[in-house]
Amino acid sequence: MHAIMRTRRGFTLIELLVVIAIIAILAAILFPVFARAREKARQTTCMNNQRQIITAITMYAQDNGERLPPDTKTSAWATLLAAYNEKTIYDCPTLTGTGSNAKPEYGFNPILFGRAMGDIVQPAAALAIADLKVAASNTNYALNNLGADLSPRHNESLVLACLDGHVVSEAMKGVTAAQVPETLLTRGYDPAPVMGTLIMKEAGPFISTHANSARTDLIQLPEEAYRTSGSDTKLPNLRVKCDVLNGKTTFGWVTNGTFALSLYDPGTTTDVNVARNASICAGYYGFTTVDTLFNTVRGTTKTVSAKLPYVGINDGTGNSFVNPLSVTIVVRNGNECYSYVEVNGARVGAFYYSGDFTAALMNQYIAAYARNNNASTVTAKNITVSALQ
User: Fold this and answer.
1) Confidence (pTM)
2) Residue 1 counted as domain residue
């Protein structure tokens, strides 16, 4: 009998193409997952690095009269911590692999340079260090400009540490670089967490009533808070806080109107819409059911919608509120400004601005404004000005 010969059938071209297509689809699905997993591991390393660094900062303060490291100006701030940890922990694994205490890839908050630990307000909210966007011009490797220096590089998340020692990763998906600082402010972080030196305190109240538009009396800033002339090179770093009401005492604010705090006010108008073009302004305007908070720096305005706490009182002109807005404005170096608005201690909106506003620093006043379709009354009280130098 003859043996029966069997021939082996190979894969057809179509079968091979189908297998290759399936592999390609699986790779397209899995590779991003693997990449995110790798980045998650790097993020964990980064958080551990920052945890060790914030511990070293605390140890430095304990060894130096309870003061934080001073500004090193032309060298990296982390060189002062060489005795407290390994230089390798200043390397973020997502970046170059060459970070060190001489070239750290984490930035330190410059407002904290040389500060006494006892001068820190709410250490749990005090931004101390964060992922740094390294630039050759940044010789001390500090967070000298929050809009330019913060780097959400871990799957669109920013790793940061606060002065109480806790480290977190803040999600920044869909947030532009310019929006990162105000996102942190909205979430309750404080980039200027120091008491500073109180240079002005006015309890008030300052009250003004006029048809349509009202402005309180101009409140003079102390001389160290403004530039006396164009040749004055002083760039005050300040925190200004004030309670503002659209009314006298009963009503906090009313819809269908605007009211605001104006810092570095020119003192030349009673119309808030005109004052906003020359000063730094933060406040509220509302139309029917839409509540909007705004911040204006010399005519450049940002807004955010906010649901503010109505209390069911109506004075005939719209919904009204009992509690005032507490407005805080921080100015730094003539090119950074951030502000936030609180009601009953809860932060309801925040803003960040980066740009040159040194011309406004020659204006000498604080004022509060209100503008309604009917007669307007505005009240400002509990005003404090603190120098952050």
Assistant:
1) 0.82
2) no
